[in-house]
Design a protein that fits this description.
The chain is built from seven helices and 14 strands. By secondary structure, the protein is α+β, with helices and mostly antiparallel strands. Strands 1, 2, 3, 4, 8, 9, 10 and 11 form an eight-stranded mixed beta sheet that branches. A hairpin with an 8-residue loop joins strand 13 and strand 14.
């Protein structure tokens, strides 16, 4: 291989390895979602297939491998034709770099996808659980819209096997904190036995898309339905925080033609337990999984 070709390959591999983390923009738990947004800007149909690609921690390992391969190619001329001291310096540098990248890559693989890790006595679902209900008017008319309700799944994984008392999820951001209701109840507080889980309502998006598991229908009052139909026709969506059905607290306005992500903080708490905050991210452009979460700090 000629010196010019080796240098070209080295630059390309190093640039590609460095570009992958830049395109991800975030840590391993959300990297795949961010990486998929780049091809979507050119061809929207690529997004769904992209989201079924490599897990994000493996993408970081691929990036590390490309950088190392690029360095090997770039230093090939020195290793082949350089002086003895140059060869020694290059060899030692490559050895140190390979060890550093190897340790970093293994730590990423060991961490895996943090979205399914335990947090103290709590274990959260790997993804935000979503249910979709067909929206009907008070007259029984089929509107063609769907109420997509998002839930945070909180399980008891305490080491001592005890029941966690008075578990709550409080949603913070933009307005006064909202106590999340538990699925199919009117309460916002629950005791969770070891091994059991509770579903806390985070909010809903009414749109023409089915974003979750189809579970029947819901009737929305006409005074609110008119607003939803008007917004959908204009390409605008609302995220109603902590609500479903005909309950309303406050909403975040989302315009599908203007990329934006809303962030909220959800704090999981219980009696005699350290609270656990997570960062909720709502992206209206993601039709299949518009709501994700990652670790946060209070």
């Amino acid at each position: 291989m000629t010196k010019k070709r080796t240098t070209t390959y080295g630059l390309l591999a190093t640039a590609a390895g460095a570009a992958i983390p830049f395109m991800m923009q975030v840590g391993p738990d959300d990297a795949i979602a961010n990486l998929c947004k780049w091809p979507k800007k050119l061809t929207p149909s690529l997004t769904e297939s992209c989201s079924r690609g490599l897990s994000s921690e493996y993408l970081y390992v691929v990036a590390a491998g490309l950088v190392f391969l690029g360095l090997v190619w770039l230093t090939a001329p020195l290793r082949t034709h350089g002086t003895k001291s140059q060869k020694m310096i290059v060899g030692i540098s490559l050895l140190i770099t390979s060890i550093a990248l190897g340790v970093w890559a293994l730590s990423i693989l060991a961490a895996g996808d943090r979205s399914s890790a335990r947090r103290g006595p709590f274990e959260l679902g790997a993804h935000i659980y979503t249910e979709s209900r067909l929206v009907k008017a008070e007259s029984g008319r089929d509107t063609g819209l769907h109420e997509n309700t998002f839930y945070l799944v909180v399980a008891n994984s305490s080491d001592d096997g005890s029941t966690i008392r008075k578990v709550q999820v409080e949603i913070r951001g933009y307005e006064a904190p909202v106590a999340s209701e538990i699925k199919d109840t009117e309460t916002s507080e629950i005791d969770i036995k070891h091994g059991n889980a509770a579903f806390f309502v985070l909010g809903r998006i009414v749109s023409s898309s089915i974003m979750g598991v189809a579970v029947g229908s819901v009737t929305i009052e006409d005074r609110y339905l008119e607003m939803f139909e008007h917004n959908v026709q204009r390409g605008m969506l609302r995220f109603d925080v902590g609500t479903r059905g005909n309950k309303y607290r406050f909403a975040l306005a989302l315009e599908t033609d203007r990329p934006s992500i809303w962030n909220l903080i959800a704090v999981i708490s219980a009696d005699d337990r350290r609270s656990v905050p997570i960062d909720l991210m709502i992206d209206p452009q993601e039709k299949k999984r518009p709501m994700k979460y990652k670790d946060a700090r209070l």
